[in-house]
Amino acid sequence: MTKIFSRFLPSFFVSIALAVLFAIQCNAQRPLGSFTARENDRQRTGIGHFAHSEKDSIDPNSVPKGYFTWTLDERFGSVRPQRPDTLSYLFQNVNNTDGLHGEYNFTGSLGAPRTARIYNGRGDFMMGSQFVFERPYNWFLVPTDRFVFTNTKSPVARLDYHSSGSKTDGDDHFVARFSTNINKRAGIGFNVDYAYARGYYKNQNHSSIDGSIYGYYRGDQYQAHGYYETGYIKNVENGGLQDERYITNPNFFPTRYGASDMPVRLEGVRNTVSIDRAFFTHRLSAGYVQYLDSAGREVHRAVQTRAGKADTDSAALKQLQTLSQDSTLVRRFVPVASLIHTLRAESNYRNFTSRKKLDDFFANFFTNGDAAADSTHYLSVQNTLALEMNEGFKKWVKTGMRLFAKHEFARFTLPDVDLHQKATIFNYFTVGAQLLRENAHTLRYNVLGEMRTTGKDWGEFNVEGNIGLHFRMAQDTLALVAGGFVRNESPAFYYNHYHGRNAWWDKDLNHVFRARIEGTLSYRATSLSVGVESMQNYAYFRETQSTDATTPTLAKMKYGVNVDQYTDNIQIASATFANRWAWGPLHWDNQLTLQKSSNESVLPVPVFTGWTNLYLQFKIAHVLATQLGADVRYFTAYYAPTYSPIIGQYAVQDATYRTKLGNYPWINAYVNFKLKGVRFYLAYTHVNSSEGRSFLVPHYPTNQRLLHFGISWTFFN
Q: pTM, whole model, 2 decimals?
């Protein structure tokens, strides 16, 4: 403990000193908000059911005039405004691999593979990437629809740093982001993200590095956005403990083991994932220019031609010149119709390597040799062409409409029995349509239907939609949103085919039919969400365990993994209540979820998952905003999915040797500061670790008590 404090306290006081100096010169430099939107950040910045209330104010000193952020619809490139992240609320949880509210299971290290404990319609294959190996790392990887673009009048840079533990077992996470405008309509930026976890337990280190560069142009008639991202993830595998009693009953052993001394199952084994993706979307619009007075009344309209010129006669040009110089008028371009093209390309690799045969761990061997060097490559190029009639270009046009066609080229490579790489190629052609109303104050809706018309998966379809009612009440909005989908789609390629040294299958799985309906009622900082889903032909990974020992033990257990498909129906229902209460300086936040699966052996979920956060909010010396409190994460016992290092995926436990996890609280204490937009925190996680049941994944203990430190510092001129 002394070593931990000796490492962090100097850095902490230095950071406070730097923050004070920064506040003194804040007239020259001001802080800004978020540049990216990971899952944790997404919930903090106003997206999702459990975000902060509209009454949460954004410090005007933290967001300068002319600074905007937005994300894009992945299919059509539509702009979605993003609320800048300037709040200190839950900043101490942003770096947690188990999620902002502790809703993920993971193997222990920062950035390690994780899986959601709360089911919310996961497993969307048709609409997402078929490269399933990136999904356990969604803490680190940012999907296209959460990639944040920025518009700023001056160059902006943000540095984030998080650290915990010691030099031998701690972790570090560094993020650097930069953006600047080229002119009023165009901007560029880049992001660098590096995380390294040494591992609290033996053979558990993890490292990730990701870089991206982006640019955009937003004119009246022509808009374009694009980015390129490259990332590399390395996860060293230890296979879990040889005996869970090192944690649950340490007195059983004559010698007390430290975390770094506990024997584990694997050595010299690692999974690596490399990601390269490019995204580009642009649109050409036809429409007209409005000039509006202070009351919002139209005083003039100029039709835009294809070349982007206004009315060509001299009288009209003279009038437009006069109007453009009138500072009391607002100029607005109204698009009528748009032609949209979107390109998405990705080239991803996954490798599983071991330095020796490891006969004592793996149950199956499908190739010759003592070492494993499994490799697969996924190449995908998607082009979507859409024609859009924009909503609202006339008062009587209440609904927008899109017609689209998408072509996808997909190439998968896997080794054959001679370890030569063999490629499988698919071409998918999809057509669809969408009706939407997104700009209305009260009634908003979105309905989309699509179907694959060629290729192996001909007849796959997806129909999805949502409808929302929004009513202004007092100083906030009462929202009732209902949605759902009906889908018939093939499982991802790697559910049908996988070739590796210790796992090998070729299957012809049936299409998965899924139907879901859900709804959310929210007002201020309170929301209630319910959902029901029915599935047929559910496909999932299942781990197999076997042993020759008379008395089965983890040290003698051998593991394999395969794919199963449950042909009957499975139903899963859930309800989530989330709220934030405040009585003066005392604040109490809650997120409580009830769920029930009709078949726990195929789709296991905990009946109850809860998160509660109690803290005091006040200011020190009238300038240092402070939050002092603790949060608790808890879920009822259930047969949690296990982690299979063979494929780097979570799988259902073997029915013969399965074990329940849960019914144990994780308690974190923290103090969170904000000074003129500089945010920093100290957090002491898992303060109750001596209780001894700290498993989120079978055989993989969570970290014991750790002191965490983090700071976010943003600059602009």
A: 0.87
